[in-house]
Prior knowledge:
The radius of gyration is 24 Å and the shape is elongated. Strands 1, 7, 8, 20, 26, 27, 28 and 30 form an eight-stranded antiparallel beta sheet that branches. By secondary structure, the protein is an all-beta fold. The chain has one helix spanning about 375-380; strands spanning about 5-10, 15, 20-25, 30-35, 40-45, 50-55, 60, 70, 75-80, 90-95, 100-110, 115-120, 130-150, 155-160, 165-170, 175-190, 200-210, 225-230, 235, 250-255, 265-270, 275-280, 285-290, 295, 300-305, 310-320, 320-325, 330-335, 345-350, 360-370. The chain folds into two domains: about 5-75 and about 235-380, Jelly Rolls (Sandwich); about 85-230, Galactose-binding domain-like (Jelly Rolls). The longest helix is centred in the C-terminal third of the chain and has 8 residues, at about 375-380.
Amino acid sequence: MANTLNLGNGNWATKKDSLLAYNSENGNFKPLPFSFERASSATVVNKAGLIETVGSGEPRIDFSNDAKGALLLEPSRTNLITYSEDFSQWNLINTGDGQAPILTSGYTTHLGLNASRIIFSRTTTSTSNTSSIRGNDYTQSTNTFSIYIKSNTSNVNIDFRLGSSIVSYEITNEWKRMEFNGSDFYRSYFGFIGNDSDLYADLSIVAAQAEAGSYPTSYIPTQGGVGTRVDESCSGAGNDQVINSTEGVLFWKGTPKQTSTYRYLSLSDGISNNFIQIRFNSDNSISNRMMSDGLNQGSTILTSSYDISNEVAIAVRWYNATFSMYINGDLIATTQTGLTMPSNLSDLSFDSVSAAKFYVSTEILQVYNTALTDQELINLTTI
């Protein structure tokens, strides 16, 4: 068993425009670089647990969920909130017996950012008695809003109104990124604006973000205008010395996130006549596909809709005219129809299909140049 191409698992090496994978066969470290592109700066949570900004073309290793880190690849997004941290630029609103919110800038810090304190209060509960804060209206429709928020006292329910409806959420005394997804959001608006029983809330808030997309992405800071992070591209690692077209295993572990678009990870000949792909589909199913000399080999192996909001481990094996997929310790299916194995596999890419870039958080990516046994694949993919 030879594990010939490795990326991640706590071992990261990055520089401008490049991300380093490696071949550890026979105890040797042989560099296998990916080409990386992003024509803008972007933020990431570093090892110290702080949000930092990295420059154009620098790959991002995110440590927000794991001490080993994960490669973060994201689509282009724009934060439509024009003041994401300076809440003194937001509107403080009260009606009826609601009191004007009390805002204190620079009250504390979170993730290395200056967080504000805001106090909402009212005497009685009614939609006519409000105490709230409202950001700018958006110049375009969006459907995702997020903010880091905590209660400075006990748990409390506050209301969020981002589009036409009001939704109440409980805020605890632990920092959390509240995330909301809906339709036709047109402003950021929260506090006491509904019929909740709570009359007083003392909160800390920072890093507000509104974006068009089915899930929130990494924080995009703004200071008086919208901010944009452009999409990222990572491709081209490997060669025919470390990738075996006749047999092998492609293994990936990470967090896909829910999405309404297709995303493909491809091991190919560089021109897509021959490839093996792991796919996350628009209905949140997971599939894989094999192509040999331009011909699809058997039926695509497909799961039903899958929970891809959490960590997933996937292995694809090609061997002896068969094609198999394992997910989280289970054999999903094996295609046995006298398949023709692909040829000239030499390129591993997160974005070989431009319309289906593999926007995910990757913890581990590996290629084996020999087929693993069923039990080895069960062990490899068990989380």
